[in-house]
Amino acid sequence: MFSGRRTASGPAANEDEFSAATLEFLDALYGAALRLTRNADRAQDLVQDTYLKAIRARGRFATGTNLKAWLYTILHNTWRNCLRESARSRVSFDSAVVEEAAEGARLATSGQVDSPETQLMQATLDADLQQALDTLPESFREVVWLRDVDELSYQEIAAVLEVPIGTVMSRLSRGRKQLFVLLTAQRERPRGRLNGE
Amino acid sequence: MNCNDLADRLTTVVDGGATEEDEAAVAQHVATCDDCRQTLHAQTTARTVLRARSAQLAVTAPPGLRTRLVASARAERPEPKGVLSWRWSLSAFAAAAMLVLTLGAVLLPVVTERSTVVLAAQLALDHLKCFVIDGDASGSPISKAEAEAIVQRDRGWSANVPASTDGLELMAVRYCLYGDGLAAHVLYRADGQPVSLFIIPGLTRPATELSVLGHDEVVWSHGGRTYMLVSAAGTKAGLARVAWYLQNEAR
């Protein structure tokens, strides 16, 4: 007899469903937070802030679009605000100087252009890859990661990072090139370096 | 072709989203441009390596983070609609208690307009106590048979307790404060809002609607019993529908 008025108790169930869907990406969110904060405690705080904001704003999520990308957008937004608010000065990886340096990085590929990438792939240790990624300027690393690991579209990445698509594409190109240089350089280095020298 | 003009198209080729036309243009260009050929190779390699290793690169959230998130969200949840805040309910409870004490005991069988108001005030008090202070509306609904069995067991008389219906949940049967020993207090949730039905045997009151102590009440009698429906003020439209249902069911 009261059909149509049951929505009064609706949002709670809805919130649970949304929460479960969001928690599917917990590892991915934590990984992203770790890349940005570089600190386990701060990463957890950032994930918590992101999660709570997502729950509160769930009504604004467009069903059928990429929830992971939407969550990343909140996470990056939260982190940007956090940086803005924090008084501490921070070395900016996004400066034009860094971008130019990256652009100018020589591709150590002479004579190797035709060698199969699988060779490099097989020769690259996970730790080396992680180290190379860590070495990338943050703005490049995020774009490369969001595209090649998370498989977000250019458009989604542009939304997450609040930059134009053209910037996404140029950072992607530079980031990949720089990563390639780093991996190639590692490969050419003697293997004993993990022991200290 | 200018290398700068081609840069974005080259990237889309690496990402697999290029048109055939772009693919051809890039292929034609890199055939003669070493720099762009190297860029294509570097981008393709980096992407291939990352995609192949994405599983190994993934981190796992620390144990406990999930629990922490769920707990933090739960802590943020607003009170369910219709259930009054603790602060308000306690002060309302105190005010109601004061009024009842001031008016003193009322002999229920004395039918006056004033006695109906006092009774309504007392039942509003019981309604507040059971729902808000004792939190009796927080569990899961019970069946009509269970509710009637409780009345029979505790009161020694039988009552027809209207069952749950769409939008109305039968939650519990209680005996509170003033009503103890006299009235059966049936707790419902109507669209999430707490609603009390008091069944008072051996008493006939004229049908009426009144507002007292921040509560709206509907009173009617049937078969030598008085029924009083109580809910927080501001839900009159909903209350009328509940009353209509209960009046038909409780016969």
Task: Describe what this molecule looks like in 3D.
The complex is a heterodimer of chains A (197) and B (251). Chain A is 67% helix and 0% strand. Chain A is mostly helical. The model of chain A is unreliable at 1-13, 89-115 and 192-197 (pLDDT under 50). In chain A, helix 3 (40-56) packs across helix 4 (67-85), helix 4 (67-85) packs parallel to helix 9 and helix 7 (126-135) crosses helix 10 (165-188). Chain A has ten helices and no strands. Chain B is α+β, with helices and mostly antiparallel strands. Chain B is built from eight helices and six strands. Chain B has helices at residues 3-14, 20-30, 34-57, 65-76, 86-103, 113-133, 144-155, 236-249; strands at 168-174, 184-190, 193-201, 208-212, 215-222, 225-232. In chain B, strands 1-2-3-6-5-4 form a six-stranded antiparallel sheet, with helices on both faces. In chain B, helix 1 crosses helix 2. The longest helix of chain B is centred in the first third of the chain and has 24 residues, at 34-57. Chains A and B meet through helix 1, helix 2, helix 3, helix 6 and helix 7 of A and helix 1, helix 3, helix 4 and helix 8 of B.
